[in-house]
Amino acid sequence: INLANTSRFSYGETDYEWKIGSKLLKNKYERKVSSVSDQNTIIYNQFSPSGTLDLMSLYTQFNAKYDIYSATFNLNYAHYKLKGFKPACDDDVKCFPQGDASINLKEGGFNPGVLLSAEIIPEFQPFVSYAHSMRAPNSQEVFFSQNGGNSMNPFLKGEKAQTWQIGFNSMRPDL
């Protein structure tokens, strides 16, 4: 679900746009194993835990444009909750953690950003930007490894980044 509202207005020679919204994403995953002719399929694919992943975000974006200059300011709050259960590994299978584990990962944080640009000519639009961001781990990264239980990570934390960009965009129709 994504609900958003955008307001546009002008004051003097400056045009403004303000967007505010919220996103909600809910995932449910469950294990379904049926008997197959090759029992190795079940033996070597024993990690399919059941659980949920909920992602929630509140966001706002404010744009101001004056003559050739524009500025965009972003702020969002993102929160995730990943829950599930990892069954214990058999004694003859090495995995981490070896025993069963209830997974309950959750984290939230603010993610601000700013972008300043100028459209000097369509072929040369320099910009500079900064963003602080976070990304939630997904169920694939926590539970469903490509190496059985050896690379499962029920203690995984969200990724965080601080990104600076300096560059330019160029646009030329029919080039």
Features:
about 180 residues; mainly beta; seven-stranded antiparallel sheet; 2 helices; about 5% helix; about 60% strand
Architecture blueprint of SSEs:
Blueprint: E1 2-11, E2 14-29, H1 40-43, E3 50-66, E4 69-86, E5 101-118, E6 125-135, H2 139-142, E7 159-169
Antiparallel strand pairs: 1-2, 2-3, 3-4, 4-5, 5-6, 6-7
Question: Can you tell me about this structure?
Answer:
The protein is mainly beta. 5% of the residues lie in helices and 58% in strands. It contains 2 helices and 7 strands, in the order ββαββββαβ. The protein has helices at 40-43, 139-142, and strands at 2-11, 14-29, 50-66, 69-86, 101-118, 125-135, 159-169. It has a 7-stranded antiparallel sheet, with no helix packed on it. The chain starts with a strand and ends in a 6-residue tail after the last strand.
Termini separation (Å)? 39 Å
* Neighbour order of strands in the largest sheet: 1-2-3-4-5-6-7
Shape: elongated
Order of helices and strands: EEHEEEEHE
Q: Tell me the major beta sheet.
A: 7 strands, antiparallel
Q: Please state the average pLDDT score.
A: 84
Radius of gyration: 23 Å
The residue ranges in which pLDDT falls below 50 over 5 or more consecutive positions are none
Helix tally equals: 2
Helicity range: under 10%
Structural class estimated from helices and strands: mainly beta
Give the tally of β-strands: 7
Beta percentage is over 45%
